Amino acid sequence: MTAKELPQGTLEIGLTGGIGSGKSTVSAGLVKRGAVLVDADAIVRDLQKPGKPVFKKMVERWGEKIITNEGELDRQAVADIVFKDAEELAALNEIVHPLVREEIANQREKYIKGNDPIILDIPLLIESGYENLSGIIVVDLHTEEAVERLVKYRGFSREDALNRISSQVDREERLSKADFVIDNNGDLDSLENEIDKVWSWIKGLSA
Ligand code: ADP
């Protein structure tokens, strides 16, 4: 279902930003204020559980080396393969994207019966060409600060953080698609203020 076919009154907002920009923090803040969330990263993690279709297809392509001793997907092993090689990344996207899109569509359908704004938290929103949304929010952060946060809070190596960032659409292009920009260069308190502002903006939109 495209956003055009949604019943009148249901707002559908895309939320995106580079890795480490603060999307998860913003989406949690919006849910706290009354939005409902479709979380593409959570969907991907679910589809990558052992035995699920995406897991199976990935193992078919890259073999046992992407499985941990516990039988789960070894995310670091996958990252080491795909974030240095555009061809491998394209292969991963081909495996993951169709099934993720299908599940995103299922979840959207479930939520359109309610009146709460739907937040589509999709890291690759711009790359995937979603259309007909009520608006797009971009969480923005200087690349250097994103790298620092990924190293400090999420345990990435500096090289890995930079490789992942450069595999995504660049900052300027993402910003050019934004209807609302959240500046997350400040501290977590300033981010809370930004979330208040974006929530007011959302409530002022009409579907
Ligand atoms: P994303 O979902 O875009 O990858 P996260 O919301 O997970 O980003 O944020 C990355 C890390 O940075 C998290 O550990 C988060 O708590 C932290 N973080 C987010 N915003 C700020 C901020 N303004 N100041 C300090 N740390 C932040």
Give the SSE layout.
Blueprint: E1 12-17, H1 23-32, E2 36-39, H2 40-47, H3 53-62, H4 75-82, H5 86-111, E3 118-121, H6 125-128, E4 135-140, H7 143-154, H8 158-167, H9 171-176, E5 180-183, H10 188-204
Parallel strand pairs: 1-3, 1-4, 2-3, 4-5
Helix pairs in contact: 2-5, 3-5, 7-8
Provide a quick synopsis of the model.
By secondary structure, the protein is an alpha/beta fold. The protein contains 10 helices and 5 strands, in the order βαβααααβαβαααβα.
Structure report:
This protein is of the alpha/beta class. The protein has one domain (3-205): P-loop containing nucleotide triphosphate hydrolases (Rossmann fold). The chain is 54% helix and 12% strand. It contains 10 helices and 5 strands; from the N terminus they run E-H-E-H-H-H-H-E-H-E-H-H-H-E-H. Strands 2-3-1-4-5 form a 5-stranded parallel β-sheet, sandwiched between helices. The longest helix has 26 residues, at 86-111. The two termini are 15 Å apart. The structure holds adenosine-5'-diphosphate. Adenosine-5'-diphosphate (ADP) is lined by residues 17, 19-25, 149, 153-154, 184, 186-188, 191.
Percent of residues in β-strands: 5-15%
Please give the alpha-carbon distance between the first and last residues: 15 Å
CATH superfamily caption: P-loop containing nucleotide triphosphate hydrolases
CATH top level? Answer: Alpha Beta
Helical content (DSSP H or I, runs of 4+): 40-55%
**And the CATH topology?**
Rossmann fold
